[in-house]
Amino acid sequence: MTKAADIMHPGAQWIPAHETLDRAAQLMRELDVGALPIADENERLCGILTDRDIVVGCVAVGKDPSRARAGDLAKGTPRWIPADADVSDVLREMEQHKIRRLPVIDKDKRLVGMISEADLAHHLSDDQIAEFVEKVYAQS
């Protein structure tokens, strides 16, 4: 049985909610990722920040990314999956919430990885990928 830990990209890194968006963009470049989980002061997941969020939610509206904070763009209820969850649970979570990236946590609630569409593509069958794409990208 394939688990979330088997398909995740290990070594994901948080960005504190108080960190500036320019620092978030630098960290994304250093890590070669397009998204970072946002952690509150208690190191709990409070959102996901994407490169697109920075552009659309900050730069495009004339805000200064050296003054705007990652937590300012954290919206909605954060989603995550336990590392020992079955891949069917991963797919269900991503499909139900129409999300493309899913943080993976261990039993101590620590971030241990991230699952993206690319991770799914490397580990799932063509039929599973087709179903995922249909559900996540279908118009509501």
TrEMBL record:
Family matches, as PROSITE patterns: CBS
Name listed for the protein in its UniProt record: CBS domain-containing protein
Residue span(s) of domain CBS: 8-66, 73-131
Domain of life (superkingdom): Bacteria
UniProt cross-references to SMART domains, sorted A to Z: CBS
Keywords, alphabetical: CBS domain
InterPro entries, per database record: CBS_dom, CBS_dom_sf, Diverse_CBS-Domain
Pfam family, one: CBS
